Amino acid sequence: MSDDLRHMAHALRLGRRGMGQCWPNPAVGCVIVKEGRVVGRGWTAPGGRPHAEPQALAMAGEAARGATAYVTLEPCAHTGKTPPCTEALRKAGIARVVAPLADSDPRVSGKGFAYLRSHGIEVTTGILAAEAARDHAGFFLKVERGRPWVTLKLANSFDGRIATATGESQWITGPEARRAVHGLRAAHDAVMVGAGTARADDPALTVRGWGQVRQPVRVVASRLIDVPLMSRLASTARDEPVWMIHGREAAAMTRKAWASCGARLLPCDVSGGRLDPEALLSVLGGQGLTRVFCEGGGQLAASLLAADMVDELVGFTAGLALGAEGRPGVGAMGVDRLSEAPRFVLEETTRVGEDVMHRWIRPRV
């Protein structure tokens, strides 16, 4: 592996530490190398600031002069709440910047590279571009299409059931799989469920067992907000954010009651008697979310899949069978032919405790 590939892979690993922690900004990593030695490194801080580059430059100090900066996305060239990273790189005396690809944000796209080159800084692009594009896919979707990346998670029995006929579901999978789910929650900006899951499971939807992390926004998609006020979500809405995505016909008293608990109420268009999935994700994208982790239930999963709004599937399969009377993980989709069913490409299969985790990605077109 060449030095450029090795250092960019290092920067990408650092950037992933910010996933779920820095929205609405991208999770960027930066490594500064001088004479073959890493002298500074950083990644986007929780809340999105400071950016990766100034953190790495602060660590490098004077050693940054004449060094190479490996950054996982084109450095920003506009002034927001902080000065541009391109300016920070120039002032620090960086001689070369290696970045895999351009930022699709029109405030930055191409301008960062142009600024660096105009000030005599060598720019190299294309290093591990596919890997970087995958890491930043949620940010790019928000910028280009106004919606976040959607990961749909299902924990099933071997025969594809999420509960028995009586609704018992805790626990189909083992403790190692449940811990892995908390890690996946931490890597997303929000955790989303439908009203049925919120009623049946009374979930907390928080990250537990992974140390101090920025908790994901807890999103409930419920046309009529038919979720009990005597629930863990309602009682903790002032501690960690709860967003209720609802239809405009939801009762005013219900909206007022949830708002008084501290929840944020976000109206959404309805189609066919249900929240429109495309409109739902547009609402979330408009609030700055880049990565959403959907944990069901079956009807919400079905609507997202049918609308081709799921980008990644994560399944945890346990070695037990519940039979046809068990509850399926995905509701009715009206699929009559195999050609109509959404297909995904297998990315990974891993043993997690006594269960199997498998990840699937929507085919790239």
Automatic annotation (TrEMBL):
UniProt entry keywords in alphabetical sequence: Hydrolase, Metal-binding, Multifunctional enzyme, NADP, Oxidoreductase, Riboflavin biosynthesis, Zinc
Presence of the UniProt keyword Protein biosynthesis in the record: no
Record: active site: E53
Transmembrane annotation, as ranges: none
PROSITE patterns for the chain: CYT_DCMP_DEAMINASES_1 (PS00903), CYT_DCMP_DEAMINASES_2 (PS51747)
Coiled-coil ranges per UniProt: none
Pfam families in alphabetical order: dCMP_cyt_deam_1 (PF00383), RibD_C (PF01872)
BP GO annotations: riboflavin biosynthetic process
InterPro entries, sorted: APOBEC/CMP_deaminase_Zn-bd, CMP_dCMP_dom, Cytidine_deaminase-like, DHFR-like_dom_sf, Eubact_RibD, RibD_C, RibDG_C, Riboflavin_Biosynth_HTPR
Cofactor comment text: Binds 1 zinc ion.
Documented EC number(s): 3.5.4.26, 1.1.1.193
CC cofactor: Zn(2+)
Domain CMP/dCMP-type deaminase, first and last residues per copy: 2-116
Entry keyword Ligase: no
Binding residues for substrate: R185, L205, R208, E295
Pathway this chain belongs to: Cofactor biosynthesis; riboflavin biosynthesis; 5-amino-6-(D-ribitylamino)uracil from GTP: step 2/4; Cofactor biosynthesis; riboflavin biosynthesis; 5-amino-6-(D-ribitylamino)uracil from GTP: step 3/4
Binding site for NADP(+): A155, S169, W171, T197, D201, G297, G298, Q299, L300, A301, A302, S303
MF-aspect GO terms: 5-amino-6-(5-phosphoribosylamino)uracil reductase activity; diaminohydroxyphosphoribosylaminopyrimidine deaminase activity; NADP binding; zinc ion binding
Catalytic activity, reaction form: 5-amino-6-(5-phospho-D-ribitylamino)uracil + NADP(+) = 5-amino-6-(5-phospho-D-ribosylamino)uracil + NADPH + H(+); 2,5-diamino-6-hydroxy-4-(5-phosphoribosylamino)-pyrimidine + H2O + H(+) = 5-amino-6-(5-phospho-D-ribosylamino)uracil + NH4(+)
Binding positions for Zn(2+) per the UniProt entry: H51, C76, C85
Function: Converts 2,5-diamino-6-(ribosylamino)-4(3h)-pyrimidinone 5'-phosphate into 5-amino-6-(ribosylamino)-2,4(1h,3h)-pyrimidinedione 5'-phosphate.
Family recorded in the similarity comment: In the N-terminal section; belongs to the cytidine and deoxycytidylate deaminase family. In the C-terminal section; belongs to the HTP reductase family.
Protein name: Riboflavin biosynthesis protein RibD
